[in-house]
Structures are given as C-alpha cells and as structure tokens.
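Thread: "does anyone have the structure for this chain?"

Original post by V.I.:
We have the sequence but no experimental structure in hand. Need at least a predicted one for the grant figures.
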Amino acid sequence: MNDKKTSVYAGLDIAKASLQLHLQSKSYDLPNTPEGHAQLIKRLAAIPGGHVICEATGGYERAVVAALHAAALPVSVLNPARVRQFARASGELAKTDPIDAAMLTAFGQAFTPQPTPPRTVTEIKLAALVTRRAQLIEMRVAEAQRADTCADADLCKLFTAWLAHLEKQITKVEALVEALLKEQTPLAAQVQRLDDIMGVGRLTAVMVLATLPELGTLNRRQAAALAGLCPYNRDSGQWAGKRCISGGRAEVRRALYMAALSASRSNHLLKPFYDRLIAAGKPAKVALIAVMRKLVVLMNHLLKNLNFSLAH
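Reply from O.Q.:
Generated one for you, tokens below.
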C-alpha cells in the first residue's frame, strides 16, 4: 500500500491533443505531445513523492504513460468507470477536464492505488497485433453479412475483392505475431504451454497473454477477478440474490469463451466438471462461465510454474 503521507497525488486528465494536470490544488494545461510530456515531467520532478493518477483512454494515454515510466515517476492507470462512480459518490455531477483532473487527485488520496507497472516493448507490440486482428475479424464479419444481402452484381464484385483483402490483412497480422514469437523465446514458451491445454488453441493462447500479461504472477482469485470471472455476492438481510460476475477485462473473456466451449466437450478435467454442473441443474451459461474461471486459474498456475522453471 502506498503511503498517504509521502505521496503527492497529481490528477492527469488525458485527451487526444491536451493534458489537464491537477497538482497541489493548481491546474495546468499542457499539450499531449513530447514537449508537453517533458513539461509534465519537469513539474512532477520538482515535487518529492509525486504520483500521477490517470485513466485508460483507449490509447491516448500510452505515450505520456511511457514517458512517465521512462522518467521513473509512478503512475496509476485506472478504469474510467471507477473514477466516474467515485465522482458521483462525491456529489460531483458536472464533467469538465479541470474537474476530472481534480477528481483523479481526490481518488488517489482516497484509495492510494498501486502504480501501474511499465509494459515491455514485446507486450505492447503483441497487444497491438492482437487488437488489430480482432478489428479486422470484426470488419470481415460485418462486411460478409452485408455481402449476403447485396443484390447488385457490381457491388457484389466489390464485396468479393474487399473480403479477400481483409483475409490477406488478417493473414499478414498473424504472420507478424508468429515472427514476434520466433524473436521472443520466453513468450513463445508461454504460448506453447497454454496451447498444450486441451481446448486452447495457439491464437487463443496469444490473445490471453496479450490481454492479461500479468498471468503467471497472480493468485487464483486475482486471476479470476482480472478476467472478470469472479462471482460476487448480492445479499441483503434475509434476501439472498444471485451471485454474478462483474468487472474485469472483457477482451480476456472473449478470448476464453470459445476455449471454454471446446474444453467443456473435450478436456479430460474440465468436461467432467462441466457435466457435473449441468447434472446439478446449473444453466449452461453459468456452467460455461465456471469452466472459463477454471481455465484462467489453470493458465495462471501453469505459467507460474513455467516462469519458475525458466528462472532456475
């Protein structure tokens, strides 16, 4: 846990072109450029114990977070939903860049979040490749559906050419993934270890590692919670509600879904587990989520053992 007495929290609201810094009750407007990042670091370096609190913004935060890590300044990248809920609970309903930056400072003071560890170049590249492949596949599905309803012959030819181009792009991205694995032996070993699990394919292993790079360093509950597969109680007084999963990383669950579906039919450990849940009257969806949770816990355990063996 961070020390509230020594940390000076600085809220940083990040937009495409600008940064809004809230530091020691003062607000600063900075450009979201290398020059602006240098100004930000200079201001923070003058404050002992400076700790930046920002939100994940879909990519606009990456460059400034990388600059802060390079300068050895602690930074916590938060889920925007948590900060928004904190602001509402604090009675702050308005939303502007200065208000958001101030709320990020208040969030840091209230919860003292742990710094977000820097990601390696390999992790960043793998995540970018996996994200691009997912985008291309989403486009391919949408365009194929549109092609199915196209009645004009000329337009159908365009659809055919466009879909072929998308297939080539997907193949090229997958080739880049394989090239990265050839360069990075430890990563390739992790992919192979997960691929060895019955029901988990090579691409699924890559997607899980790209979206959950912490895997292999967590305990069972942390692994399930980060994947959003940890069920939470919803009880009040004598009323007992259904336990539901909540939060976590949706992209991890998407990667695990098809693997769990396959494992529930073929894996010698997970198929009996799934069958027992169905026999006990659990809905198929609930049983499948339980398999996904078992799967991510198993992956975490296998990678932890692999990392230990590689280190020794």
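V.I.: this helps a lot. The beta strands are 8-14, 18-23, 26-31, 50-55, 75-78, 231-232, 235-236, 239-240, 244-245.
O.Q.: and Residues 206-311 form one domain.
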